[in-house]
Design a protein that fits this description.
By secondary structure, this protein is mainly alpha-helical. It contains 17 helices and four strands.
Amino acid sequence: MSFALLTAKKDLRRHMRDPVSLLLWLGIPLAIAGLIRLAFGGGGDGAGLRAHVLVVDLDQSFLSQFLLGAMGQQQGGELPFEAEAVDLEEGRRRIDDGDGSALLIIPEGFAEAVLEEQACTLELVKNPAQRILPGMVEEALTMLVDGVYYVHRTFGEPLRSILESEPADGAFTAPNAEVARISVEINEAIENIGELIFPPAIELVVEVPEEEDDGPGIDFGVLFFPSMLFMTLFFLAGGLTEDFWVERTQGTLRRALVTPNRAAAFLLGKLLAAVALIALVSAAAHVLGQLAFGLELQNVPLAILWSAVAGAFLVLVLLPIQLIASSQRAANLLGNLVMMPLLMLGGSFFPFEAMPDWMAAVGKRTPNGWALEQLKAITTGTYDVPSLAVAFGGLLAVCAVLFALCTWRLGGAFARSA
């Protein structure tokens, strides 16, 4: 046992002198997880995208102020716009700096042109650094133009009557007869379109099927985190098994195997060092997942323990490939041929919840897919204690069988060829 501990200590010192490799093993999957979380939205508050529109109101009329107020609905508003009133110079400067999705300039005479159905140009300057949000603003303005057109087709006569009516001498309001006539015109216009809008010609009925209550929803990031962690463990296990070829090339493997200590002690020492490194990387991944991505992970110590045991299992799965291969290049090729399908099917690239049912069913029966499901149950707090205890026992038993196989190969043909 002392020889195994000395071997583990030696390996840990060697790996700690190369922190770049550890950072790469940990950083690449976490970077992928971060990018995917950003792509799917990491805020967790359900807020949608909102276009920030800088509005220059040169008209200062009730219609331009109404348009600015409608676009300025912020928290709780249904429109995906957030309008901010600015002057022309500031608006030009800020949109040139990329501050905002678009700049809308409302010209003088906007209200008069709309009421009298005359030509009027709204200037829209879009931010070229954004693709979707400026297009939404442009589409909304196009709908506004269409809306003005149909309002004039329906209420054009009453609108023109309002503009042409003038108060009598010494009065502040239009004559009662004129007000009554305009009201009658508006009422007749509403009656003409009443059959289409009261009720609407097209009625939308939405029926939502009742679903069973499965408890509180789980954040997508929490589901994706175990997948990324197992990708990290796979990469780490692959790198640790390649260390046998480093020992063989440097001649330290032959010297270790010709000592009175058996090959089992040497292999046990390297496996203990691998488990320690895997536990360290797993702990760092859990801390980063909680601090950097705001994930609500449960049972972190138990999850780290399961990750360490599962990592040892992955090392013992990939190690026979290194010991059987005739060269390091062949070992790397065979290792990748085994790793990539397991990563794809085992839920490491995408969670099982995002995969087709048939693929998820196959993936959950792969060794790493089964272990990943156990880790997911631990981090979400949905695991069953007796089932998890059986899983721990079964995984350790399989590790013991693989350890015996690797010991036989290490002390046999691989040692003689070293």
